[in-house]
Amino acid sequence: MASLEKHDVFDIVTEVPPGTAVVDSKWVLTIKQKLDGSIEKYKAHLVTRGFSQNPEDYGEITSPVIDTAVIRYTLGYTAIHNHEIAVLDIPTAYLGATLHEEVYMKLPDAD
After folding, report:
1. Which of 9, 12, 22, 47 lies 20 to 30 A from 38 at CA?
2. Cα 31–1–41 angle (5° rounding)?
3. pLDDT 10s digits, 61-89
4. Tally of domains within the chain
């Protein structure tokens, strides 16, 4: 939640405009373990339950997916030319995405 608040991802509203669809959400909790089985860290993801949306609630949907042939080509090219591969994972990269629609999400119940 601190990361979401820090990046000003959402506004909490108490009233939703009439006729507006509200998307459900839930917490996905995971425990990351080290190789020896001890706990490395606890992770929590707030996710929308997108299946509760209606197709008329949003415009075009795209999901960037890479083809396995491109991965094989890149790895082969890298090996042939003796290059190194570096991996960069930005856990909050999606927070900077531009959203053109207003989306209302119901926060999960605090159990």
Report:
1. 47
2. 20
3. 656 677 889 889 999 999 999 999 888 66
4. 1
The Cα 1–Cα 46 span in angstroms is: 8
Given CA atoms 42, 63, 25, 1 in this order, what sign does their dihedral have? positive
60 within domain boundaries: no
**Would residue 111 count as lying in a domain?**
no
Task: Tell me how crowded residue 84 is: count the other CB atoms within 10 A of its CB.
Answer: 5
The string of pLDDT tens digits covering residues 17-58 is 888 888 888 889 999 999 999 999 998 888 887 666 666 655
How many angstroms from the chain centroid is the CA of residue 81?
34
d(CA 17, CA 28): 28
In a domain, 110, yes or no: no
